[in-house]
Amino acid sequence: MRMAAWIAWLLVLAVPGHARAGTVATVASPDGRITVNLALDGDGRPSYRVKHDGRALLGDSRLGFIFANGRQLLRRLRLESASESHHDITWEQPWGERRLVRDQHNELRVRLTEDAPDPRRVDLVFRVFDDGVGFRYELPAQPHLTEARIVQELTGFALARPATAWWIPALEWNREEYLYRRTALTEVGIAQTPLTLRTDDGLHLSIHEAALVDYAGMNLMHAGSGDLRAALTPAADGAPVVRATPFATPWRTITISPRAGGLVESSLILNLNEPNAIGDVSWFTPAKYVGVWWSLHLDTESWATGPKHGATTENTKRYIDFAAANGFRGVLVEGWNPGWDGDWFANGWGFDFTRTTPDFDLDALARYAAGKGVHLVGHHETGCAVSHYERQMDAAFALYARHGVDVVKTGYVCDAGQIERQDETGVPVRREWHEGQWMSNHHLRVVQAAARQRIALNSHEPIKDTGLRRTWPNWVSREGARGMEYNAWANPPNPPEHEPTLVFTRMLAGPMDYTPGVLSLTGRNGQEIPGTLARQLALYVALYSPIQMVADLPQHYAQHAEAFEFIREVAVDWDESRVLAGEVGEYVAIARKQRDASDWFLGAINDRSARTLALKLDFLESGVRYRARVYRDGKRAGWRGPERFRFVREEKIVTRDDVMTLRLAAGGGAAVRFSREPE
Q1: Contact at 8 Å (CB) between 379 and 408?
Q2: Which of 381, 432, 479, 485 is catalytic?
Q3: Is the preceding omega at residue 473 within 30 degrees of 0, hence cis?
């Protein structure tokens, strides 16, 4: 189906059409502040409503499906049964932004049956937390619905209050790599999730999904009057989703908080995922890494072989030496394998993942790195020839495992809708979307293959994060947004408000490999990177990932030794994380406690308006004095010109009773390490 016709069909389906519905079941959050009502109207059409503190947040929001292989499942439904249960457990993350996660929710399970000669059945499951709602459809095995070919999922989110939205477009050529738009909710087109909203009375929401497995990714389409509707990512041919019963859909999630920081602190999405499926992952070490990467974006080196080739034995040794000298565990090398010569964007079928280029000695480099306590970080760029990659995948991971490579960055560089799928050798190639059902299954095949070799994954140009890191804790990070490389060559580069927006949008989905730490603040051909030196340091705390790149060239760190000290010292794995202050797209200050240590780190980043933050330090341990090393914007610092480099490092003694005042320059930031003073 052509994209224009597909969108037109969705709009037809989105037209509201049912009368006021009557409540048939209700469930509330443990604290009673959030209430969900399930309703059926006179035609047996289901919908749900959400209230927060007794006020309508979502009005009648539709539920149901359009099938390609049968009548729609959306009317003539009756309540067969309803049951409620309470759950309250605490589980531990092997790595993460916090060690312990509490899962406390009330669950409503409802069974609906069609009033028809050949009735079908659908279960609706709602889990209501103190910070939001998750719900999904479960289609049991049944004689009149053995396979579901889902043309459209009719799930709606009918906002009952005017709201501002932060969003990026869906189903556009550049995947997720767009600058966020801030508009009225009524101006949203077709948006990706997470979609962040702030109602006119100050309540914050994020709409997303959890546990995206064997299903098409959900986008959101504005259908008038603040009503958002699910828009599933298309398939190469036929229905977006084809599943045999029984199956469950991903969870549809609505995170709710009176303050913006509450969205960041929520663990709702993780809690809706299944527990760890692979057991012990102590072999994965959260860490910082360097690599042959930024030079490629500067165009001073190249992925392709020849005089500018970056992935040479000697050049990689230089990065290994730099990593060893500064305590960085990993060295990423891109361009080490055949396939990069020529137009690799358009010909991923030329990649070979088990052979090296003649000037790259993998055996020697693995030995050299191991001798210095450093690990190579692998790289599998597919150029979107995904079936071609899958045929080599097991052998490629085995090769890496033999050489001590335990983290691999994967890539899927191509325009959206251009994933190349070939089910059998010699049959025609079909083109899928990055977030379609087939790619959802592909990514699970990759993470499972990697797990068998004790390898962790960092996916670029990925399917969106939906909390599967809980189930597959070797899926440690992703890209899935406009990252640092845009500052090297894009026009425009990422503006100062970009990262304070990411914290409250993309980062709500999960960790991002943003690749911070470019202290040169300069891209290709002298292009200025918007923002200050202190801001680059703060990104290590503000943008969470258990693997953080030290992205700049080694020689640039020598020029900024005082600032580089923070990058060397900052942790990457945390016991606890707190948002001290922040507003979407404006500023944020986050404090995190280092796992298995007493140190805290703070990162604050700002948009292009200078501001002063007064931050309570009550996260620190009572009765303990801390030495605060503060890396901040200097006098008259700013996000353009030479003022970007104005920078001050200072120390002071503080306790939890203190308030720290931080002045953030326009496009600026601040980074702080709090170290416990000896008694």
Answers
A1: yes
A2: 485
A3: no
pTM of the entire predicted model: 0.96
pLDDT digits (tens, 9 = 90+) for 455-495: 999 999 999 999 999 999 999 999 999 999 999 999 999 99
Is the pLDDT confidence value at 670 over 90? yes
Q: Are strands 55-62 and 65-67 parallel, antiparallel or unpaired?
A: unpaired
Mention every residue, 6+ apart, whose C-beta is less than 8 A from residue 5. Answer: none
What single letter denotes the amino acid at residue 162? P
Average pLDDT over residues 194-223: 98
Is residue 327 within 8 Å of 364, Cβ to Cβ?
A: no
Both tokens of 316, joined, read 């990689």
643 catalytically annotated: no
Residue 101 gets the label, from left (phi > 0), alpha (psi -120 to 50) or beta, of beta
User: Does the CA dihedral 279-280-283-287 come out positive or negative?
Assistant: positive
Q: Three-class SS of residue 170?
A: coil
- If one counts every other C-beta atom within 10 angstroms of the C-beta of residue 173, the result is 11
Q: Which residue has the tokens 């969108």?
A: 7
Pairing of strands 77-92, 100-114: antiparallel
Alpha helices by DSSP H, 514-553: 533-542
Query: Which of 513, 609, 501 has its CA nearest to residue 168?
Result: 501
Give me the phi and psi of 624, to 5 degrees please. -120, 140
* Cα dihedral 252, 258, 264, 268 in deg (nearest 10): -40
What is the Cα 64 distance to its own chain's centre?
A: 27
What would the mean pLDDT of 557-573 be, rounded to a whole number? 98
Alpha-carbon distance of 134 to 577, in angstroms, equals: 23
* Residue 225's pLDDT band (cuts 50, 70, 90): confident
For residue 562, with 0-12 CB atoms within 10 Å meaning exposed, 13-18 middle and 19 or more buried, which class applies?
exposed
SS3 386: helix
Q: What is the pLDDT of residue 16?
A: 42
Q: Which residue has the tokens 């070919």?
A: 149
pLDDT in tens, 467-476: 999 999 999 9
Find out whether 503 and 528 touch, Cβ atoms under 8 Å. Answer: no
Q: Using an 8 Å Cβ cutoff, are 477 and 511 in contact?
A: yes
Condensed to tens digits (0 to 9), the pLDDT of residues 579-622 reads 999 999 999 999 999 999 999 999 999 999 999 999 999 999 99
pLDDT at 8: 41
Count of Cβ atoms closer than 10 Å to residue 390 Cβ:
16
- What is the C-alpha separation between 91 and 103, in angstroms, rounded? 8
Is a pLDDT exceeding 60 seen at residue 511? yes
Q: Which two tokens stand for residue 431?
A: 């083109």
- Listed residue (124, 157, 114, 103) closest to 27, CA to CA: 124
Question: Quick one: average pLDDT of 53-73?
Answer: 97
The pLDDT of residue 224 is above 80: yes
- Residue 421 burial (CB < 10 Å; 0-12/13-18/19+)? buried
Residue positions counted in the chain: 679
Could you tell me how far CA 393 lies from the centroid of its own chain?
24
Q: What is the pLDDT of residues 12-41, one digit of tens each?
A: 444 444 445 799 999 999 999 999 999 999
Question: What CA–CA distance (Å, rounded) separates 108 from 85?
Answer: 7
Instruction: Say if residue 95's pLDDT is above 90.
Output: yes
The DSSP H or E segment spanning 101 is strand 100-114
Q: Which two tokens stand for residue 567?
A: 């990058």
Written as six digits, the tokens of 466 are 């939906």
**Contacts of 122 by beta carbon, 8 Å cutoff, 6+ apart:** 73, 77, 111, 112, 137, 138, 139
Considering only CA atoms, which of 650, 500, 624 is closest in space to residue 565? Answer: 650
pLDDT in tens, 82-94: 999 999 999 999 9
81 to 61, 125, 541: CA distances (angstroms): 21, 12, 47
